[in-house]
Amino acid sequence: MNWFTHENLALIFAGLTAFAVLLYAILDGYDLGVGITLPMHNEEWRDTAIASIGPFWDANETWLVLAVGLLLVAFPSAHSAILKALYLPVAVLLIGLILRGVAFDFRAKVKAHQKIRWDWCFKMGSILAAFSQGFMLGIYIMGLEYTSVSLLFACFSGVCVVAAYALIGNNWLIMKTSNALQLFAIRRSKQAGTITFGGILAVCLVNPLVNTNVYEIWSTPPFASLFAAIPLVCFAMFVLGYQVLKRLPLEDDKGAWLPFVMTIVIFCMCFFGLAVSFYPFVVPNQITLYDAASARDSLMIMFVGSVFVIPVITAYTFVAYYAFRGKADNLRYY
Amino acid sequence: MDVLLLSRIQFAANISFHILFPTITIALGWLLFYFKVRYDFSKHPVWMRAYRFWVKVFALTFALGVVSGITMSFQFGTNWPGFMETIGNIAGPLLAYEILTAFFLEATLLGIMLFGFHKVPGWLHTSATFLVAFGTTMSAFWILVLNSWMQTPVGFEMREGVAHATDWFAIIFNPSFPYRFSHTLMSSALTVCFLVAGISSYRIWRGDDKKAPILTMKTALFSAALLAPLQAFVGDLHGLNTLEHQPAKVAAMEGAWETNNGAPLILFGIPDEEARTNHYAIEIPKLASLILTHDLNGELKGVNDFESHPPVAPVFFSFRVMVGVGLLMIAIAWWCSLTLKRKGRLSNLQLKALMAMTFSGWVATLAGWYVTEIGRQPYLVHGVLKTADAVTTIASENVAITLAAYLTIYAVLLVAYIKTLFGLAKKAVDVEEYDLTLPGLPERKATYTGKEAKA
């Protein structure tokens, strides 16, 4: 039992929270991305695109609830410090998520002429949610302060996250659809990838300049050389990914899954890069994860539960993805 | 307006909007499971048709529940930081268990339930339906544990102003939990019964002579006839439990200002907080004492004799709305059930009454929640933490902006939701029935609607 000290438990829960955020960014990232890229000029494509995320989006958004929930229950003071600083962007995020979440169901059930309205709602809600997430990330990187420079950076970061989600969303469509829609997704994926690439480059440059301890972490050996691998892998994925996109689609739809998997690697690398930069702070330069953690007993009782429950969640998530493997072209709604 | 009032209005608006949808999905999940099991055993397509219609309603309702629920998880921190600072060690694990054991289960398997009928084996689809229903119930379990604990906190100790758990079993099965949990689950069941009966009536009233709406109507009405009186009984037990642990709430519910041996039951009145009396009160002598203490001259402590008490008027009126709707539910459920049983069909008047009652469950549920939550004031956690001490330090303008935005969206969505439900029903009326029976199954003559009877 000695191993489960308060510090270790705090670290475990920081890891779990980070894991939930990362998984959310990947999973809801692709379904928000499908919303962002929704082809408004072709109804049939829209139906297929939305059908491809239909069975998954509810569960994807649950990772956001878990991430915010873990922050709330394991690091209550950080939860309130971060969310109070981000009060208005959070409200924008929620409104975006509400709009797209309900549009999803309404579009399938209303009269034909009203459907396009909910499709716009779906697209706009997705863009709004993605932008506000990027905006919040920007403000977080800038130390949760609102200056004209940090606002500018946050808006830029917002655009980049919209592009990054559009990238993973289009790559999801490349994997899950075929024919004309797939070609459309390939074109869009190239555009989104270019913007995302520029954005990541900018964050890599700005972050060490703004946060002195970030600069220290990334420039002090021996970790500096190890961490150098993170941007290198990330950029390698962009170069390779572009080459793959240029060649797709191949015969028998070979390699259609490659861009999606490569984007996941890019997301992971960016996330690890950020996580490493901020450790041990949960609120940049203010509160460390050890100071913010709740009582040991409470962490322990949640830890025990998580050990049993998370494998079960993983298992039935696999069942769901396995059940809906393959192309989404003829997915029917009941 | 100050940030406390705005935050309270915003939280009340969010939670009121949110609860409308889980209260439907909890019981509707089980109803769908029932339809699916009946289909699995009989292979009669009518059960599948009932399933397919109501699963659409389920999906839409579930989506609204998810998106309005996400809002809640953010507001704990943004608007009520003092809540988690003081009782985070207890609320935290309960909320974490809700997410881990309920949210993922329902959200993940919902995909299979909605889209998987042709993709997965039948048993897996039925299991998914079961697990989604189970997940919604688990979610209700954990959130009601937390809510009940806020009403009747036990199993903890305060150290330096922060609550620490000492006995998790006592926390989970705290004194008001069993009553609140059963009362809430049954209110969910009744809400769904009247929703299903209302929408089915609408279909029949519009000339739908297919079997599915009559089947769902029967299921809903007979269940309601059974559950509505039972709910009154459970509610009474819950009230007695409240009298034991939160007597000030009961005093406000009864509109009792002065302590009284042999308190009257006030049927109607207008409580006046300033004058500390009720205007235009219509009373039945000694009945409140009889109901609450089982003694004509039993003592009912009035709000004036409590150090702090909730605002009387909102609790008093909400309680009467809840009881009123509950009694109406009993009357209509029995009136229509008996006719349906005897004649096999309902009159136009009965169909209209059921249509009018479609969302009566919402009214009763909201009124009931207002009784218990406003009745908890001025405390957030009874006797431990006052609402005013938990509120945020955000600028009130910011809260005002978000409140206005939320209210607008909620109003739009509520209208869209109700319109869509009736739209779905209308669409179902016009759909041609193509495979009414499967070979080998006896087709019972449908004699439930006026149209059929004439033919």
From TrEMBL, chain A:
Its main location: membrane. InterPro entries: Cyt-d_oxidase_su2. Keywords: Cell membrane, Membrane, Transmembrane, Transmembrane helix. Signal peptide: none annotated. GO terms for biological process: aerobic electron transport chain. GO terms for molecular function: electron transfer activity; oxidoreductase activity, acting on diphenols and related substances as donors, oxygen as acceptor. It is found in: Cell membrane. It comes from the Bacteria. The chain crosses the membrane at residues 9-27, 81-99, 120-143, 149-172, 192-210, 222-245, 257-279, 299-324. It is a multi-pass membrane protein. Pfam families: Cyt_bd_oxida_II. GO terms for cellular component: cytochrome complex; plasma membrane. NCBIfam families: cydB. Belongs to the cytochrome ubiquinol oxidase subunit 2 family. This is Cytochrome d ubiquinol oxidase subunit II. The gene is cydB.
From TrEMBL, chain B:
GO terms for molecular function: electron transfer activity; heme binding; metal ion binding; oxidoreductase activity, acting on diphenols and related substances as donors, oxygen as acceptor. The lineage of its organism: Bacteria, Pseudomonadati, Pseudomonadota, Gammaproteobacteria, Alteromonadales. This is Cytochrome ubiquinol oxidase subunit I. Coiled coil: none annotated. It is found in: Cell inner membrane; Cell membrane. One of its GO terms (cellular component) is plasma membrane. It is a multi-pass membrane protein. PANTHER family: CYTOCHROME BD MENAQUINOL OXIDASE SUBUNIT I-RELATED (PTHR30365:SF14), CYTOCHROME D UBIQUINOL OXIDASE (PTHR30365). The keyword Phosphoprotein does not apply. It holds the Pfam family Cyt_bd_oxida_I. Belongs to the cytochrome ubiquinol oxidase subunit 1 family. Keywords: Cell membrane, Electron transport, Heme, Iron, Membrane, Metal-binding, Transmembrane, Transmembrane helix, Transport. It comes from Alteromonas sediminis. One of its GO terms (biological process) is aerobic electron transport chain. The chain crosses the membrane at residues 12-33, 53-74, 94-117, 129-150, 185-205, 212-234, 315-337, 349-371, 399-418.
